[in-house]
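[stage:ingest] chain + small molecule (S-adenosylmethionine)
[stage:ingest] validated
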Amino acid sequence: NFRCRSAFKLLEIDDKFRLLQPGHSVVDCGAAPGAWSQVAVHRVNSTGTDPELPRGTVVGIDLLNIPALDGAHFLSSHDVTAPPTHAKLQELLPKGQAHIILSDMAPNASGFREMDHERLTTMCLSLIDLAEKILQPGGSLLCKYWDGFFVQKLQDNLSSVFGSVRTLKPHASRKDSAERYFLARMYKKPVKKK
Ligand code: SAM
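[stage:predict] done
[stage:export] tokens:
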């Protein structure tokens, strides 16, 4: 039983792209109420349910409270875009590194489509800073966005640090909504400027 129907979007994407492997470390941004984390816990074997397989790690973050879930570590009342949250993640993850960052984050809709689009895009761009701190080379980022004017900039920024970036529209996502996902793979850590 999933906490939210959004689980089906992640299941659909993961069935196709096999992003979540046993033993992987996953960061779930905007995790409340926890349905994506439920999928991740199962797929990376973070409860150790299958003792034959490596045991993964799932860390979820949300501004809201996320009810406890076996196999996941939750940072409730945390802002994904805030640097102190990044530091906590570095402590919680094995070797301070994640294989994949998931983001189903969304701001509270203001009703003004352009404004909501811009706010969500800014949140997505901050995930690139988070990636620089915790995503291991070769890692992946899956993030929700709302289609609009700033998407090209987001895609360009993702393409500068990921080997492959594609747009996904899961069947489980309402056809008439502007919701899409970027799947960015093969992360290349940017070279530090001196
Ligand atoms: N994927 C979740 C699931 O399957 O249960 C549903 C996520 S819901 C669509 C979006 C979430 O993003 C909300 O719970 C919201 O509080 C959270 N959110 C929005 N801005 C955030 C931020 N800056 N930091 C952390 N969480 C944020």
